[in-house]
Amino acid sequence: MSFSLSPGTLDSMAGVFAPSKKYRLGTGGGKGTAAKAGGTMLGLAVRSMMSGSAPYRAPLQTKTAFGGSSQSAISRRAISTLERTARRAPEVVVRITGRQHGGGHVLANFTYISRLGHGADKELALYTSDGDVLRDGRDMQILAQDWHEWEMGDDARRKGATSLSMILSMPTGTDPEGVKDAALAFAREEFANRSWVASLHVDRDHPHVHLTVARRDHDGRRFHPNRDDLFRYRQRFAQKLRDRGIEANATPAKARGLDPKHEPIAARKVREKGGIPRIDKSRADRVERYRERGIADPVEAVLAHRHATVRDAYERSISELSASPSLVDQAVAKSLERFITSLPTPEPNSVRAVKDATASQDEIGRGAGKAGAEPDPLTAALARSRAMREQLEAGRNLPNVPDPQQAEAEGERPSGISDRLRSLMEESHQQSSAASPNKADEILRKTQERDPAQRDRDRSPDKDGPKR
């Protein structure tokens, strides 16, 4: 008989490896959460008293973390997850990057992920759900228009997204072709009833696949992925990678002893360019407020409690694995012991932001050759904030500097993808003969007629109809 973790240990580990819920008890979100949670705790107590007299029935959280089936099968998958986490296997990334509205926006997305118009040596293949490989702009235009017409249906005033784009990536050093094959296999399985396109990018230090999915499936149903869906996407993508011999893992940040920063992409880009995002300023203000009041940040207590819960769950698994007759399970237990010893001490995002600002300020001081006392963390953060504000104000007062938003509002398109799309459409129109009109010619004609009308409608204050 194979070794299995106890039901209580499986359920406690599921609390670590399952995604966190957006709404918790006492937050006012959700319906009936208190009764549901109480029933779960009561079920755990009853199972512990019955001491295995009834077959184990995994709760939903355990199935989300380790899958369903029997206790032994769930236990095997849980131990494998623990072993990969203890070895710090590479973590997959699956992130939603945007939504596209209308056929033109979808075509722009196709153009971007296929690098259409960047030259023959830089253009990439666009793989479709039908098994085709698109490289021609006219084919992409027809496909984008088909998605748009299917999304709109008979409702000419729909404002919902036509498609949803996401990115699937792995760390540096991963085989790009393996990532592409795993991503395509994942899309064929997860979005079997939807249209999608995908393209592999290796222009950065880590291989990643851009995946764009039609929001409406073949049965007319639309979908709105939530955090549980994204967690399932990560699990399935990691499994597809492992099936191809690529080491991959999909665990929440708390399982690795990390506190997710919950930062928008825009904030990271501003920080990479040397600027100070507003979120850092608000975090510095938070530190100052609590310091003036002489109290600790309440987030510290929350993080400390969660950190202790994670350690307790790991220690419970270590205790049972150490008692297993299998040498492999005992090796996993020793690996987990080293893992929890190296877990970092949790700290609030506000404290981390001030430390990062201090480190950046120290680097600036060392680069300038200035010697002196170490600056106060809050003072350094506020100083950077004032410097960036002065730079922004100075930039606004510079003459003859075009504003991209103003140019777009006046109907002038900025250079970039839009120019390539316009040239592509003009070239396609010149190549089309006056013999027999086809679907592509009709799409081009409609697009050219719709552009000025759309701009006029956007400018009109009554574009949404009379106010009621």
Which features characterize this protein?
468 residues, alpha+beta, BirA Bifunctional Protein, domain 2, 4 domains, six-stranded antiparallel beta sheet, 17 helices
What report would you give on this structure?
- The protein is an alpha+beta fold and 468 residues long.
- It folds into 4 domains: 7-89 and 299-341, no CATH class; 93-248, BirA Bifunctional Protein, domain 2 (2-Layer Sandwich), CATH 3.30.930; 265-297 and 348-397, no CATH class; 405-459, no CATH class.
- The protein is 55% helix and 7% strand.
- The protein has 17 helices and 6 strands.
- It has helices at residues 7-17, 33-50, 60-66, 71-86, 103-114, 137-152, 176-190, 227-243, 265-272, 278-293, 298-322, 327-341, 349-368, 377-397, 404-409, 417-431, 439-459, and strands spanning 93-100, 126-128, 133-134, 163-169, 196-201, 208-214.
- β2 and β3 form a beta hairpin.
- The longest helix has 25 residues, at 298-322.
- The relative contact order is 0.10.
